[in-house]
Amino acid sequence: MKEGKNLVIVESPAKAGTIQKFLGEDFIVKSSFGHIRDLHDSELSIDVKAGFKPEYVIPADKKKVVSDLKKAAKEASTVWLASDEDREGEAISWHLFETLGLKEENTRRIVFHEITKTAILNAIQNPRSIDMRLVDAQQARRVLDRIVGFKLSPVLWRKVKPALSAGRVQSVTVRLIVEREREINKFTSESSYRVTAQFLPANPADGDSIISSELSTRFKTAQEAEAFLKSCVGANFTIDDVSTKPLKKSPAPPFTTSTLQQEASRKLGLSVMQTMRIAQSLYEAGYITYMRTDSVNLSSLCLNSCKKVITERIGEKYLKTRKYATNSKGAQEAHEAIRPTYMEN
Fold it and tell me: What are the Cα distances from residue 330, in Å, to 125, 136, 210, 299, 336?
């Protein structure tokens, strides 16, 4: 790399290739291949007495990556840390800053929600510093995972079965499942009988349309249901009232990570892992926005693009701009929902 060029460091090589096309020859884009530091595999690697301070090491398979990035960083005039805008991505940028020996005066942190030329150039024009709140959040999660897993997993090996693992989330989830199963086992079921009917018009001139209906009352025994049916033999049924009400159907909100996974499972039969792997590939190729989000917000850029495409293709009467809001507590409203990056395609 020629001295004086800009070095951009992203997480994945697929993303690096896409971004390189947008930035041109004044920039060199390299990948960290995810995290470059982690806790030691065979040790607790947490100094509990020093305020639960994590002790990081560079894994053997990342030493060459770190060496190459150090060399590139020394030759660059400015280093742009472009990992994802979540706590893992922020932690990766922080680990890169610390491990590569970067300096604040020539290091920039940039974030983007979609891999398009507009988004990348806008990120370059609006850099920020590393958000240590997100870094601390990631470290707290990693430390909790290690403490719980490192202490509880050996207990499972001895008491239950070798190779089992305990975790910060899965251990609590297992307990919730067990408690729910116990509630189900204690539940005493009661049978009931429902009555349904299909009615034909009394006058053949009215056609042969069938009206299906169900009795609102449920019977506790088969004898009660049969007695009711016998009482209906020979009876004439009439419609007392017909009410007409306007039906309004609104489109579903834009995808968040969880709703994307639910729809992919329901309609395509995909597992969570398959869905996220496909979404990751689409994101890195620049086809969709960032796939890890709990927001249903859409950017003004997206709304304006949609407005133009809808108006041109099917007419302005089909255009209705909606503003969605996330109801879940703690949702990151600054992020955008998962959507296509190019509405015209």
Answer: 29, 17, 50, 19, 15
Q: Could you tell me the two tokens for 343?
A: 């509405």
**Listed residue (29, 118, 151) closest to 299, CA to CA:** 118
Residue 328 above 70 pLDDT?
no
Q: Which of 162, 164, 167 is nearest to 149 (CA)?
A: 167
Tens digit of pLDDT for each residue in 147-179? 988 888 888 889 888 888 888 888 899 999 999
State the pTM of this model.
0.74
d(CA 29, CA 15): 9
| Residue 322, C-beta contacts closer than 8 angstroms, at least 6 positions apart | 250, 251
Whether 30 and 51 have beta carbons less than 8 Å apart is answered as no
Q: CA nearest 340: which of 270, 291, 295?
A: 291
| Catalytic entry in 56, 193, 290, 318 | 290
What tens digit of pLDDT does each residue of 290-314 get? 999 998 988 888 888 899 999 999 9
Is 290 among the catalytic positions?
Answer: yes
